[in-house]
Design goal:
Blueprint lengths: L6 E4 L4 E5 L10 H7 L4 E5 L2 H4 L7 H15 L5 E6 L1 H12 L4 E7 L6 H4 L3 H6 L6 H8 L2 H14 L2 H4 L9 H20 L2 H9 L4 E7 L7 H10 L4 E5 L6 H4 L1 H17 L1
Helix pairs in contact: 1-14, 3-4, 7-10
């Protein structure tokens, strides 16, 4: 629980916490944060140190680290939290475990409970379900099958419209080792967590929620997102088109507007 979280802060008003995804960065939220800083006190924590900690950290423990950060940095304040992908999962986990800290949440293409079972790409199901060590992952990624996996991952987790094309499947040496390290950590988290526990807790969720998803997302199907929303009692659901998984990068103006509208409408109610 000694993991330090650095963060960027801007603006004044209600406290809005923006959580990036696994393998993402605070930069993914930049355009959205710029649009919202005139109305909110926007805080974007850098979660990479937690995601890729030298000592592997359970999803449950990551939530406790995040809760500790909120209590110590913003004492006696309730936050509005918006999370993308894995950051979305941290958002609903935080809302469930520490409802006294969360006023309302916005989930954007969130990772759902028991995610591996719901992954659309078969390549991802394979790599994230088999308990491989770091060396084995590195060697497999250098094979033709590994390059197919990396190419598929790039299609999902990179926004080529705003970041440019990246030949992830051509990585070698230290860069490939870093990607192997990231996959090794993520795979361990997904396999080690008790998703049955979370599935039960999510059924009893009573917090305010808006769920935004891209109907053609390559990671989870629209049906999976809709079933997840129904499971957690989130009736405010918005489907995007042509946004991809990293919607905060590909359609930042729309995401910012949907966040602002939701907060304003719920405050008025």
């Amino acid at each position: 629980m000694s993991h330090k979280i650095n963060y960027r802060e801007r603006g004044q008003g209600p406290l809005l916490l923006l959580l990036h995804g696994y393998g993402g960065s605070v930069h993914h939220w930049e355009s959205v944060a710029q649009s919202l800083e005139s109305q909110f006190r926007v805080v974007v924590p850098n979660l990479s140190h937690i995601y890729l900690s030298t000592d592997k950290i359970f999803f449950t423990v990551q939530i406790e680290i995040l809760a500790k950060f909120i209590r110590e940095t913003f004492p006696a304040e309730k936050i509005i939290v918006a999370g993308l992908s894995y950051g979305g999962a941290l958002s609903w986990g935080l809302s469930l475990q520490h409802p006294q800290l969360v006023q309302k949440m916005i989930l954007i293409n969130p990772m759902i409970s028991d995610p591996v079972r719901h992954f659309l790409p078969k390549e991802l199901k394979f790599f994230f379900s088999i308990p491989l060590n770091l060396k084995s992952i590195y060697l497999m990624l250098a094979t033709p099958m590994g390059k197919v996996f990396l190419k598929r991952a790039a299609q999902i987790f990179r926004d080529e419209r705003s970041e440019g094309t990246g030949a992830l499947e051509s990585l070698k040496g230290r860069k490939l080792l870093f990607v192997s390290h990231m996959i090794h950590h993520f795979s361990w988290i997904l396999r080690s967590e008790d998703w049955g526990f979370w599935h039960g807790k999510l059924h009893n969720h009573r917090g305010e929620c808006r769920l935004i998803f891209d109907q053609d997302d390559l990671l989870f199907s629209a049906d999976s997102y809709l079933k997840f929303a129904a499971h957690i009692g989130c009736v405010d659901v918005i489907a995007l088109s042509d946004a991809g998984h990293i919607a905060i990068k590909s359609q930042p103006e729309i995401i910012a507007k949907l966040i602002e509208e939701y907060i304003r409408e719920t405050r008025a109610a």
